[in-house]
Amino acid sequence: xxxxxxxxxxxxxxxxxxxxxxxxxxxxxxxxxxxxxxxxxxxxxxxxxxxxxxxxxxxxxxxxxxxxxxxxxxxxxxxxxxxxxxxxxxxxxxxxxxxxxxxxxxxxxxxxxxxxxxxxxxxxxxxxxxxxxxxxxxxxxxxxxxxxxxxxxxxxxxxxxxxxxxxxxxxxxxxxxxxxxxxxxxxxxxxxxxxxxxxxxxxxxxxxxxxxxxxxxxxxxxxxxxxxxxxxxxxxxxxxxxxxxxxxxxxxxxxxxxxxxxxxxxxxxxxxxxxxxxxxxxxxxxx
Length: 287
Ligand code: PAF
Description:
Strand order of the largest sheet: 1-4-3-2-5-6
Radius of gyration: 19 Å
Order of helices and strands: EHEHEHEHHHEHEHHEEE
Structural class: alpha/beta
Helix content: 25-40%
Bound molecules: pantoate
Oligomer: single chain
Number of helices: 9
Distance between the termini: 38 Å
Strand content: 15-25%
């Protein structure tokens, strides 16, 4: 059984605690979340605990990364349940601040996200990565961590944050941790809660499409266009027709052409009913 983490809702108190840890030479790792925690988040916390003495989880539904037509209002907020789930993990601090501490009245400063933010999610969700880059930088100001752990499920977000901290000289190591999936393969996401039973079955089209592309790639297929045709075919077989993108791109630039050194990644975003889902897989030789 682990000791219960300290839970703070004041950001100044959180900064004070983290500074003390750092002054005493302890390594601090940050897992930023928007709450509605699931096993994917918990696996990030466990990986954080394995590499740092002090793990901090932030829980904050960030308004600036939601578009006007998106689900900011209905995004699940369940702090008590989140704290119960975190009780099974080894972590030292949970910070769950109110929105007014992060966005004071008249707040008008934003981070212009790096180039890797432009395609795919960036094109489908204008302003999304500006909101993400801004809040992640703010969280790192509050919790000056040595490392920051993000899920690979939001692969483009990971690349955006990686380039943002490099460009802005933020001394933090950004790590992506493997996507956690349900036994049938569906990538865990807080938004899966919106899916009906039949929609959930259709949603399996995303992981099956990605696995098909992985298999074809490992069998030698290298033409992004043909891999993309397979992604779309399998999505169609699962009646997933509202596809925002289904692409095979360079794992670093997220563009075509693919530079062999960086490998490539298949990215998919599609709507199943009213729910927009994203998933991705790295395409690796000979797997
Ligand atoms: O991935 C998320 O949950 C959010 O985008 C993040 C990184 C916590 C920023 O609000």
